[in-house]
Amino acid sequence: MKIILNQDVVHLGEEGDVVEVKDGYARNYLLPTKTAVIYNKANAALFKSREAAIEKRKAEKRAASASLKERLDGVSLSIVVPAGESGKLFGSVTSAMVQSELQKLGFDIEKKKIEVATHAIKMTGTYTVVVHLYENDLSHIKLVVMSEAEKLAADKAKAEAEAKAKAEAKAAEEAAKAEAEAAAAEETAEAEAPAEESAEPAENN
Questions:
Q1: pTM greater than 0.85 (yes/no)
Q2: Which CATH number is correct for 2-70, 3.40.50.720, 3.30.300.20, 3.40.5.10, 1.10.10.60?
């Protein structure tokens, strides 16, 4: 069936695009949800009259997509899943799990736009998740898949590193304070020395 999209549809097209889809897909989803309308002369003319407004929205979406891509490309996610000692996963990493982690970072992205190659993620390790943005824009996110044991070990190492850094910072602060006090004491001693020397001749007189 030939239709005109009323809004953007991932992997299908953008608002105003004329596309061919299976009849069942159109009748059961696209048309009832008003995501699309049947292609005919009247609807084609209607979309033609809205062409300028559609292009303006597309330009805004491109700008927003470019900004989002710039922020997303630097994101690294960590997900903890049940796994055996060898690192083999008992479950799977889903797009919903990635979506949840992204939401924690302030990114509100539709689940259907997140592509997780679950068939390829069978072991703990580092992977890449693809996020489909506007038009052909894609963002590649680093995904670290960890077992619960690995998470505990990582948390322990992080806590130890933070404690060490804190102790070093405190030691450096105390050393700087002691150095400042020593310098101040030395300045005070130097300032008092001439006064004592000038007082001696007066006593001799």
A1: no
A2: 3.40.5.10
